[in-house]
């Protein structure tokens, strides 16, 4: 009996949700009518970081703020704004951290250059080895 | 050369071990500061949330007097903890405006009746547009605005009693 009451209480307990009581923004969960525009918005949303859940993109996240950011992206795309301009708007406010496509700078240089550098080293190494065998 | 080389794997291990240990002992700071600090307030135009209390427009801020702009919500639990501190700041003579994020008039009215009402203006931000324009990524956050309408600083999280002197000092310095 006690157990049943406890389980019932658990079922009825309201979670302390830190969520609002407003419906999500109009374009948070609705695609744009124009498929080409939606594809552009989608591609951009997949490379923007959700600032609440930090490991997800705003396309993947169900956080309310991610919904607001999706609505912002779709509205601006529908208005004819370029994806790069929208990304720039968000970078100005939240820093490079908000984008999964980091712009080239001194801090991100190793990230972009390392693969090229490793490839060059590999090619040089392979050339030396093949030469020795050929001789 | 060989002799030295034999220590290389151990050195590499020590390096990686140190890196991982440092990350565990002092995790990276993941708070996202606004890039708008030091810049003029972005273009804001918010309708009033409560009848009889003005909304928020950018022009309201360049009045020669510093103001606080508090990003809050009735559904935000740390905002309850912050409320008494905001009342203290108001008693210290500061004017405080608010942006209510994804909120309803009834919920805000109940919140203010319960926790005190420090706000001169309350702007309605139903879809977080103003929040994003400010570079704010959560509630509560408080922006310190100087008399020329420029963002001087951003306080992330609820304002505690021991944050108050620093806030007053920064606003005094930014006059």
From TrEMBL, chain A:
Domain CcmH/CycL/Ccl2/NrfF N-terminal: 25-134
CDD domains: CcmH_N
Record GO biological process: cytochrome complex assembly
Keywords from the UniProt entry: Cytochrome c-type biogenesis, Heme, Iron, Membrane, Metal-binding, Signal, Transmembrane, Transmembrane helix
Membrane spanning residue stretches: 104-126
GO CC entries: plasma membrane
Record-level Gene Ontology MF annotations: metal ion binding
Pfam family, one: CcmH
Signal peptide, first to last residue: 1-18
Similarity remark: Belongs to the CcmH/CycL/Ccl2/NrfF family.
Summary of the function given for this chain in its UniProt record: Possible subunit of a heme lyase.
Name under which the protein is recorded: Cytochrome c-type biogenesis protein
Organism, scientific name: Sphingomonas leidyi
TrEMBL record, chain B:
GO cellular component, one term: outer membrane-bounded periplasmic space
GO biological process: cytochrome complex assembly
GO MF annotations, alphabetized: disulfide oxidoreductase activity
Localization annotation: Cell envelope
PROSITE patterns documented for this protein: THIOREDOXIN_2
CDD domains: TlpA_like_DsbE
Listed Pfam families: Redoxin (PF08534)
Name of this protein: Cytochrome c biogenesis protein CcmG/thiol:disulfide interchange protein DsbE
Organism: Sphingomonas leidyi
Phylogenetic placement of the source organism: Bacteria, Pseudomonadati, Pseudomonadota, Alphaproteobacteria, Sphingomonadales
């Amino acid at each position: 009996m006690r157990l049943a009451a406890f389980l019932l209480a658990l079922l009825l307990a309201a979670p302390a949700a830190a969520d609002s009581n407003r419906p999500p923004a109009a374009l948070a969960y609705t695609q744009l009518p124009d498929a080409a525009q939606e594809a552009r918005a989608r591609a951009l949303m997949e490379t923007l970081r959700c600032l609440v859940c930090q490991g997800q993109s705003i396309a993947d996240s169900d956080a309310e703020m991610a919904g607001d950011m999706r609505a912002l992206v779709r509205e601006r795309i529908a208005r004819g704004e370029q994806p790069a301009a929208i990304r720039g708007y968000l970078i100005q406010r939240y820093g490079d951290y908000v984008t999964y496509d980091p712009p080239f700078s001194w801090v991100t240089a190793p990230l972009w250059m390392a693969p090229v550098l490793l490839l060059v080293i590999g090619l040089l190494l392979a050339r030396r080895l093949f030469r020795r065998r050929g001789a | 050369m060989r002799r030295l080389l034999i220590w290389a794997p151990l050195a590499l291990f020590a390096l990686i071990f140190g890196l991982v240990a440092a990350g565990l002992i002092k995790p990276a700071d993941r708070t996202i500061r606004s890039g708008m600090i030091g810049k003029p307030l972005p273009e804001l135009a918010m309708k009033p949330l409560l009848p009889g209390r003005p909304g928020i427009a950018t022009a309201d801020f360049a009045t020669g007097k510093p103001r606080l702009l508090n990003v809050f919500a009735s559904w935000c639990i740390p905002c309850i903890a912050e409320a008494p501190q905001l009342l203290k700041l108001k008693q210290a003579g500061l004017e405080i405006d608010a942006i209510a994020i994804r909120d309803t008039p009834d919920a805000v009215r109940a919140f203010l009746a319960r926790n005190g009402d420090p706000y001169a203006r309350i702007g309605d931000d139903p879809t977080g547009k103003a929040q994003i324009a400010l570079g704010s990524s959560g509630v509560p956050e408080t922006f310190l605005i100087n008399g020329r309408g420029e963002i001087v600083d951003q306080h992330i999280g609820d304002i505690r009693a021991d944050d108050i002197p620093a806030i007053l000092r920064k606003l005094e310095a930014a006059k």
